[in-house]
Amino acid sequence: MKKQQVKDIMVPITEYATVSADANLHDAVLALEKAQQEFNRNNYTHRAILVYDNNNKIVGKVSQMDIIRALEPKYLEMQDHAGMSRYGFSKKFINSLIHKYKLWNNSISDICYKASELLVSDIMYTPSDKEIVDINASFEEAIHMLVMGHHQSLLVTDGEDIVGILRLTDVFSVIIQVIKK
Hints:
alpha/beta, 3-stranded mixed beta sheet
């Protein structure tokens, strides 16, 4: 079997959902929905939107979790106040936080309507160097970066330019095919 590289597996940026940093959350959701409908590589649809700046350079991404988290601004208050961004908690503790911070007090319709005007630049995530892989990197190097960094995807670069995204789901599909052989 030919030794695979990132470029053999990645999704080119032209096939991925993108939106301007100046766009609002409503526009971002529509871009993600459109990309999911048009993308036909396999059953795994896009779960994030790449964000570009005024120079058409990718500067960040917005995941499904970022969108949901943006619906309730008090999540940021909770994380900053309690310093608890990635821990598992009991149902009882989670329910106490919902009551203490008055989370989701309004209807989902009201919350979504209000959040739809948020700017993408306010909710986007700027990937670190640890989430960027070279287009010519080996499949094994990419796997290592995904596993060790607990990432769902890596941005793929060719020189200084971001040219695609390597998704964990696509890496997993390759692994499934190899296992089946």
